[in-house]
Design a protein that fits this description.
The protein has two domains: 1-41, no CATH class; 99-294, no CATH class. Helix content is 59%, strand content 6%. It has ten helices and four strands. The strands form two sheets. It has a two-stranded antiparallel sheet with strand order 1-2. The chain has a two-stranded antiparallel sheet with strand order 3-4. The radius of gyration is 21 Å and the shape is globular.
Length: 297
């Protein structure tokens, strides 16, 4: 039996660390064999991995369609999208596996947290004229992303609140800079949708779903980073040609509507009025209307 130095990565934090593990060959073999059912078993037909498969299939079809409209200039975007979705599939299958016992008990964690890609728009749907994404906006986006990553992953209500205000901020940027930020909006809405539902699942399960929800949300928040900016920047080049890549390829997620009817929104409004804040930061509740923050009437 030999001792080995193993370098491992935490798939949720993305941090590398060197760890000396004294595993026998028998132990290592057991770990590998134990992981096989998760990574090679039949995937769910209604979970995280299935959502990725739907996206990969749609992007493959639309890559060809958009290539005809853009003389191939959209190919790089769709190649990157499909490669990214494929890279996430092992983690998605793990999340599905973790969620399955709760799903079987009637708590639809994960399976109820996605909108089918079948709800995506038509590639020929028109978009408003756009400008190039300016560097000051990129800097603001990075600040928003950093704010998300600073939230404790156990603070699920805080994540939902941040997502709501993040979506409002995206709407402001799109109007102010005359751009479209479909991937940034989609990822934030998806995070918020999962967080809002996680609060409900926690109540249904007496807190037993909390660990799975944390892992799921951590995975989604990991997807909010520089790649998000790259996707929207590549799409912006095509938008300037009048072609709605991503705008028409990502389904609308009803997060804002659900959030505004939730107890979280009502609690946030109560705290907002009690403080009398004039300009609520990211984790406070406000509505974006007519280009200005306005308290809900």
């Amino acid at each position: 039996m030999r001792c080995r130095q193993v370098r491992v990565i935490d798939p949720l934090s993305g941090n590398w660390e060197m760890t000396v593990m004294r595993f026998s060959v028998k132990t290592v073999s057991g770990l590998i064999i134990g992981a096989i059912p998760v990574l090679t078993g039949c995937p769910r037909d209604d979970g995280f991995e299935n959502h990725l498969d739907e996206a990969i299939e749609l992007y493959g079809v639309r890559k060809v369609q958009y290539a005809e409209m853009t003389a191939g200039r959209s190919d790089a975007l769709f190649d990157l999208l499909m490669a990214t979705e494929k890279a996430v599939k092992p983690i998605a299958r793990y999340i599905d596996w973790r969620a399955t016992p709760f799903i079987d008990d009637g708590i639809p964690i994960v399976v109820n947290d996605f909108v089918s890609m079948a709800a995506a728009g038509d590639i020929h749907d028109p978009i408003e004229p756009v400008m190039e994404i300016p560097e000051p906006l990129v800097a603001e986006i990075r600040e928003l992303i950093a704010a998300f990553h600073s939230i404790e992953k156990t603070d699920v209500p805080g994540i939902a609140n941040a997502a709501y205000n993040g979506v409002l901020k995206v709407s402001e940027w799109e109007a102010r800079y005359q751009v479209q930020l479909p991937m940034l909006r989609h990822v934030i809405e998806s995070i918020g949708y999962g967080a809002l539902h996680a609060v409900q699942y926690s109540a249904m399960s007496g807190g037993e779903t909390d660990d799975v929800a944390r892992e799921f949300l951590s995975t989604q928040i990991l997807g909010l980073g520089e790649p998000t900016i790259v996707f929207d920047s590549l799409a912006n080049e095509i938008h300037q040609q009048g072609v709605g890549v991503l705008v028409n390829d990502l389904p609308c997620i009803p997060f804002v509507e659900e959030y505004e009817g939730s107890d979280l929104a009502r609690a946030g409004e109560s705290a907002f009025y009690a403080r009398g804040d004039a300009d609520p930061p990211i984790q406070q509740v406000a509505h974006w209307q007519a280009g200005e923050y306005r308290r809900t009437e």
